[in-house]
Structures are given as structure tokens and as C-alpha cells.
């Protein structure tokens, strides 16, 4: 993740879109990768203020390692009413950490914190993880699922080139009541299977890309109560700013694309997604 951070932070920042008239929630962001700073830094407040200026007034800050999960909790504590935290070991981190059990213990302790509302991002990534490390990744995923269930938290799933394995794992061990596929990357058939199981599908800027017609078909199928929107900042800036540094302020571009595909007004979709986020994560206050 560090290499990705260094690459992305040098990119131009995407220009601000026209503001939404109805406030909504960015369900997945990595604010610490936009600015390498303390969790209570004025630089983080600037990001939050900029997002709020275009109608994105709440953000779920997502951890990907033990240390970054600690950062996420501090960020959520520093900005009540605006930020909640998710904590986990990213599936690409889990197989290579020095002491997996120690780091999982840290995640379990963080899960007890009141502003931690989700366990994530966890899951499976067979794109970046070599086959010989995948057993460790699968073990970590199962442990995170159990932590989410033990602490009644939402589960935020990272799934890359591992659709069947992720779904089979959830079926085998039992999914938490609130299970979210972050940056949904499946096709229509996978979307249908997720919908049948009551899983939440969160769409990122990828659904606006020209090479992603399957995602646009999928977003049409999802019942409104199973839908979220996210940036995955600082990655995956939506069109027309693909390749720029992404921030939570880019949510309006993705939400408008989703609304157009679904034949819904942006106000209706923004309000519904905000309601979904509160139902899944609880009050941001």
C-alpha cells in the first residue's frame, strides 16, 4: 500500500463537482493516504470540509493494517458527527505481516471502541497475493468474519479476482448480518447472488469507467436498500477525472452516474444511501 500511496499523492487533485442538494455518505475512504499526517490534522479537516461543501457530509474511514486502523479510530474520535471507523488487516497485508496473531488481536481490541462500526477492509485478493500465501489470507478473512459477528459490526469485504471463494467462505462460516462488498467488482450474476443473500453492494468510481459495462448493469439491479456509494480515496477517481487524486468530494460524480443508470433522481438516491449508511454503521454523532 505504501507504494500506491507515494504514486497517487503526486497526482493532480480532481476538480470539485457541482454540489449535491441532498447530503450523503462516502462509505469507504482512506484519508491517511491522501495526506500523510496525524489523524486530527487540519489537513484532514480540509478534506472533510471540502467534501461537505459538495454534499458529502459523512465518511467511513477504513483501516488496512493494525497501525492504520489505530489511525482510523483516532480520526473518527477527532471528528465526531463526520467520521466513523472500520478496522482490519487488508487481505494483501495479512499474509506478510510479521505477527499475524498479534495484529488480529489489535483489530479485535479496536472493534470494542464505540466509533468503530465495521470490520474491514478484509476479504480475499487473488490478483496480488501469490498462491503460496493464500491460505494465510483465507485464515485472516475467517478471523475477521468472526470478529465482526462477535462484536455485532458490519463486515466490509475487499474482493479481487476471488468472487467465488469469497461467496463460498461466507456461505460456509455464515455472513454477519450486515455484509458489504466494497468497490463491487462482480458481474450481473454475482450481483444477483449477493442480492439474494441480502449483502450490501457499494459502488465506486469504477462504475463510471468506459470499460465497466457489467458494473453499470449490476447497479441497475440492486434494491435501493442494499446500495452504497464510495470513493475508495485516494484511488479510482470517477469519470471525467479518472487518473486524478481521488477524495470524498468526488462522490457526486459517481452518485449521478448511478442515478442515471437506475432512472432515479440524485436527491432520492443521495437520501436513500445516507439512510442505508446510518442503518448499517449507526449514527455518526
Automatic annotation (TrEMBL):
Keywords carried by this UniProt record: Hydrolase, Metal-binding
Listed Basic and acidic residues bias regions: 1-11
Molecular function in Gene Ontology: DNA nuclease activity; hydrolase activity, acting on ester bonds; metal ion binding
InterPro entries: DNase_TatD-rel_CS, Metal_Hydrolase, TatD-like, TatD/YcfH-like
Gene Ontology CC entries for this record: cytosol
Region annotation Disordered: where it falls in the sequence: 1-20
Name under which the protein is recorded: Unannotated protein
Amino acid at each position: 500500500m505504501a507504494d500506491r500511496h507515494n504514486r497517487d499523492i503526486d497526482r493532480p487533485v480532481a476538480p470539485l463537482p457541482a454540489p449535491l442538494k441532498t447530503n450523503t455518505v462516502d462509505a469507504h475512504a482512506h484519508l491517511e493516504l491522501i495526506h500523510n499526517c496525524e489523524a486530527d490534522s487540519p489537513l484532514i479537516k480540509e478534506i472533510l470540509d471540502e467534501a461537505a461543501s459538495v454534499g458529502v457530509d459523512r465518511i467511513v474511514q477504513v483501516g488496512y493494517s493494525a497501525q492504520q486502523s489505530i489511525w482510523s479510530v483516532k480520526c473518527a474520535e477527532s471528528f465526531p458527527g463526520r467520521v466513523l471507523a472500520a478496522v482490519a488487516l487488508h487481505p494483501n497485508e495479512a499474509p506478510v505481516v510479521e505477527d499475524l496473531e498479534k495484529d488480529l488481536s489489535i483489530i479485535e481490541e479496536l472493534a470494542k471502541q464505540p466509533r468503530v462500526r465495521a470490520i474491514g477492509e478484509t476479504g480475499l485478493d487473488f490478483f496480488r497475493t501469490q498462491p503460496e500465501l493464500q491460505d494465510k489470507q483465507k485464515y485472516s478473512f475467517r478471523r475477521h468474519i468472526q470478529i465482526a459477528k462477535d462484536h455485532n459490526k458490519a463486515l466490509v469485504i475487499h474482493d479481487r479476482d476471488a468472487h467465488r471463494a469469497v461467496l463460498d467462505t461466507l456461505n460456509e462460516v455464515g455472513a454477519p448480518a450486515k455484509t458489504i462488498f466494497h468497490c463491487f467488482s462482480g458481474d450481473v450474476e454475482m450481483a444477483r447472488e449477493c442480492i439474494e443473500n441480502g449483502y450490501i453492494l457499494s459502488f465506486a468510481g469504477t462504475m463510471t469507467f468506459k470499460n465497466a459495462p457489467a458494473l453499470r448493469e449490476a447497479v441497475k439491479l440492486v434494491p435501493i436498500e442494499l446500495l452504497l456509494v464510495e470513493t475508495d480515496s485516494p484511488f479510482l477517481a470517477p469519470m471525467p477525472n479518472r487518473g486524478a487524486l481521488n477524495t470524498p468530494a468526488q462522490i457526486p460524480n459517481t452518485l449521478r452516474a448511478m442515478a442515471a443508470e437506475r432512472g432515479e433522481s440524485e436527491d432520492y438516491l443521495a437520501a436513500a444511501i445516507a439512510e442505508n449508511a446510518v442503518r448499517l454503521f449507526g449514527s455518526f454523532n
